[in-house]
Amino acid sequence: MRRVTLPLVCLPVLLLGWLLLAAAASAEPLRVTAVLDGDTLELEDGRQVRLAGIEAAKPPRSAGSGANPADGRVWPLADAATRTLSDLALGRRVLLHGPAPVDRHGRLLAHLVREDGLWLQSALLVRGMARVRTRPDARAYAAEMLAGEDSARTAGRGLWRSRVYAVRDAADADELARDRDSFQLLEGLVLAVSKGGGETWLDFGADWRSDVTVHIGRAAMREVTRAGIDPLSYEGRRVRVRGWITLRNGPMIEITHPEQIERLERVPASASLRSGKPDDEDPWEEDETEDDPE
């Protein structure tokens, strides 16, 4: 097994992850016997583990078996993400961070740390093989994971070189409508915030009937408030939001927990939108040979 070497900019994130996770990991290391995709693996006791808090490069559910229905090509970097996780974990012993909930597919949702201290979630994020995708029951270490994602996005590593995974422009409702039923990151200026009945709506356009909207329901508002966030403070501010795109009037993301929203103070959306690739380049094109960090 080759020794893993990481870019120096990523080391503080990984080291912090080791300190956070090591004490809380299970005492019994288990060998990884199979890697199913870029964020799912199987342990020697037969249990499957879905790496908590991330979404590896993979097609949306609407794309079917992993290929582009239009021409049959493999989804960008899906195979590279699987290979990367295999290189990092297959045949290695890992410590399971617990307790870990079971998802609707019967898989454990957990953080995994190799015996040598490598935190698998952070290793995938800093290589650009995954995006942060927290959920109400998988929110731990969000700040550390977001830092790892940010380092890869800033450097243009992995999936951040492909327009398929690029941060969307929240002002472009037509584009977001085409992304219906997929997980996306979007950035933009919040033009209006409205509250009523314990709920909140953030609008990125002038017409709530057709523009991009972020909705925070009553239960989520309690979590947002508990986190010290006042959604009214987002009006006139640039934010980054991540979540599942649905169509309710215009495109909408439903907020279920506060880690889905980041307030952007210094970096304009244009600095990260589209990963700086020319519009006439093939959005499926990527050079996977540069994604091998070892």
In short:
This protein has 294 residues and is α+β, with helices and mostly antiparallel strands. The protein has six helices and 16 strands. Helix content is 20%, strand content 26%.
Low-confidence stretches: 1-12, 267-294
Sketch the topology as an H/E string, one letter per element: HEEEEHEEEHEHEHEEEEHEEE
Give the total of beta strands. 16
User: Compute the gyration radius: what is it?
Assistant: 19 Å
Distance between the termini: 11 Å
Please give the share of residues in helix: 10-25%
Biggest sheet features: 8 strands, mixed
Relative strand content: 25-35%
Shape: globular
SSE class:
alpha+beta
Specify the number of helices: 6
Mean pLDDT: 82
Descriptive notes:
The chain is an alpha+beta fold. It is built from six helices and 16 strands. The strands form three sheets. Strands 9, 10, 11, 12, 13, 14, 15 and 16 form an eight-stranded mixed beta sheet that branches. The chain has a six-stranded mixed beta sheet with strand order 6-3-2-1-5-7. A two-stranded antiparallel ribbon has the order 4-8. A hairpin with a 4-residue loop joins β2 and β3. α1 runs antiparallel to α4 and α3 runs parallel beside α4. The longest helix is centred in the middle third of the chain and has 14 residues.
Element layout with pairings:
Blueprint: H1 11-22, E1 30-37, E2 40-43, E3 48-51, E4 54-56, H2 78-89, E5 93-96, E6 108-110, E7 112-114, H3 120-126, E8 130-132, H4 142-155, E9 168-169, H5 173-178, E10 183-189, E11 192-196, E12 199-203, E13 213-216, H6 218-226, E14 238-248, E15 250-255, E16 261-264
Parallel strand pairs: 3-6, 9-10, 13-15
Antiparallel strand pairs: 1-2, 1-5, 2-3, 4-8, 5-7, 10-14, 11-12, 12-13, 14-15, 14-16
Helix pairs in contact: 1-4, 3-4
